[in-house]
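Two proteins were folded this term; both appear here.
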Amino acid sequence: MPAHRPALISITLAFVIVATACSDKTPAQPSCTYTVTGTTLSFSPQGGLGSLTLNTGTGCAWTATADSAWVTFPSGSVGSGPSALSFGVSANTATNARTATLTIAGQAIAVSQQGRTPCDYTISPSAIDVGAAGGTTAVDVAAGAGCEWTATPDALWITIASGASGTGSGRVTLTVASNGTADQRAGGVIIASRTVSVRQAPPSTPPPPVACEYSVSPVDTTLHWHFTTLTIDIATAAGCSWTASPSETWLSIDRTSGSGPGAITASFSILTEDATRRAAVLIRWPTPTAGQNSWITQEGCRYGLDGAASFPASGGTRMITVVTQPLSSSCAIGCPWTATANASWIRVASSMPRAGDDAFSYQVDANTGPPRVGTITVAGRTHTVTQAGG
């Protein structure tokens, strides 16, 4: 047994040596290379978004940086493997162009941006005239986008109501206080280093009071039954006051006071009565003469018709003539009228209403009872109908 032990040991050591040699082998690391291309690398003053394409192997890490704060990476600045990167360029408010360098996976990319156009301001108007009472006025500013400006008054009586500062085009609203001095005064407001002058007039001397004189037309008018309005003119100077009122309830007017020249419309209803009515529009003013009345006379209508008629119990038909005449013979329009019966057994057969000299017919029904009496009324006149019993 002892003669075989050394051979066993040698075999075991050889196995260990072979196994150890195999475990020392490690896989080879990938070699990363990077290329960067861009499509938008030059920008206008307004800025915008640009895009880059990064080509590299899978798992190859990269970092993106910019040497200027006006360039950012909104979609992230670190990653691995091939990628599409976007970057943002903010607006350039300066007039000078600028450049920045983007470093992506060690690759330098140049980005440029134009400067804005130098600011030019147009102020309108360049001068403002304001009355003594003061008030609000405005100045318009025309400027390019991004052009800043301020507005500053140089007098205490001028204040900025709105638009004390702005960018680009805008409007400055000024409030001018009333002028409490006896003289004209001048000030201004400075907008974008330009001065807009403001001139304010002194308070004006009030004119002497006007010596008011008045006249009214017409002062006396006669109207026919069918007239329903009349215009009364008042002649006087501007600022001269007056009042008006009707003397009767059947008369109404469209205004009760005024100042300066004016007109009053008097209104009333038609007058078909056998009568004449008279009322005045009382116009008054603050002078020693006190005022003037404008009198209105309205004439009515006269009517005539047969006073009565008798019928037998069997009834019948009768024609009645109505005679009309305006109170004033110069009125050529016939007076209106309507015939109305007060009993159902008396029936007016002619159409109504009618006007002027005309006639109408009516029918009396047969009577089987005792004698009866009814009436037909025309414009306040009565026609009596008597019928015998049956």
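Next, the second protein.
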Amino acid sequence: MADSATPDPIRVGLPSAKYVLTTLDLGPRVASGPVGPVAPGVRGSYRILRTDEVDAKDAPLSASERSNVATTGAPAATRSSSDSFEGTARQAAKLSISEAPIEAFTDVKAVVESLPSKSKMVRHNPHITIDSDSERVAEEERNVRITAFLYAASRENDNDFHLIVGRDPAADAPMYMTMEISGLPPPNNSSFARLKAARDAFGAFFGESLPGASYDFYDPPIPIKVEGSLFFDMSHANGRSPGPPSLHDDMPVIWEVHPISDIALER
């Protein structure tokens, strides 16, 4: 574990020093044989900036939680360590994978520009509820494949991993959107195998350095290729939308890729 002091951002996509509790090194994988879905030795070196940043709807870390992260480097604990999905809002949609063909994108901005407006979706007919049985509407019947960069991630109490995926850091202006590795449905769900494979791949890449209840930032951002279904997060139609405070101003939509059905880091 490195010293917790870190300079203010020297590039877009990093948090201010005031939010950073500690830094960790995520080094190259060293192993004598295959490790899960990720081969040994393929991971580069990254710095993890473990912060106290949380989504606006979540309770801030307590003083004791902040102290524990700062002194031990351990991630802030979530309500459950299970891999099962433990949420309710739009559960049916969140745990389903659209059967639409895949649309390929090489820039998050292009995805964002292809989405219906928030006002249109809020006024959607039929109305989109946040009930657990709320299924995908027509506008959500889209699958995308996005080649981009992973800037930050956290683990929510419902056991979803929130990934903040953005443009190339050399782009003319930053832009990010949320993409989620879902907590798992029951094994008899038709989406289970693909959602588990994506979750396993993410876990194999990070090993013991998975994020917790507050956001980890990655320096440099990690190249990533994500496939998944588009999802309108109706539960954030009012109030402040999700995302870490440091990046929130450059997250223009509450649309997500949710769930992620396939993921490759360092693609």
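The chain has one domain: 17-265. The CA atoms of residues 12 and 170 lie 9 Å apart. These notes refer to the second protein only.
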